[in-house]
Amino acid sequence: MFKKTVFAVIMLTSGLLGLVASAADSATQPVYAVPRLEGIVVDGRADDWGTRGFRVDAMVDAGTGRVRLAADFDPRFRLGWNTQGLLVLVEVDDDVADESVDENALYLRDSVELFVATPDGGTRLVQVLASPGIDPRHGELRCKVLDHRAKEVVNKVQELPKTAIQLARTATKHGYIMEALLPWANLGLTPKMGDEVAFQIFLNDSDGGPRTKVMWYPVDGAPSNASCMYRLRLAKEEDTAVRVACTAAYERFRRTRIGVVATGDLAGHTVEVFDGKRKLSSGVLVADGRRASVEMTCPMPDIGKTYGPLTVRVDGTAMASVELPDARQVRRDAFDTARLHFARSIFSGTIFPACDFEQPVLVEDLIGPYGLHTDFYAADFTPVKSAEKPGRYGAVVTITTDGGAVGKRFLTLFRQAQAVTGEDRMRGEVTFPKGLGIDPQVVRKQSDAVVARMDYSFMQMSRHGSESAIFLAGLFETKPDSPPQSDGGTVNDQHWWFELKHHTGDFVLYEHHVRLPKNYDADPNARHPLILFLHGSDGSRPDVAKQAKNDIAAFADAHPDFPFILVTPACRWKEWWSTDDLGELLDDVAKRYRVDPDRVYLTGLSMGGFGTWSMAAAQGERFAAIVPICGGGDPADAERLKTLPTWIFHGDADTNVPVARSLEMEAALTKAGGKPKMTIYPGVKHNSWTQTYSNPDLYAWLLEQRRSQITK
Question: Regarding the domain delimited by 244-329, which CATH topology (the fold level of the hierarchy) does it fall under?
Answer without folding.
Answer: Immunoglobulin-like (2.60.40)
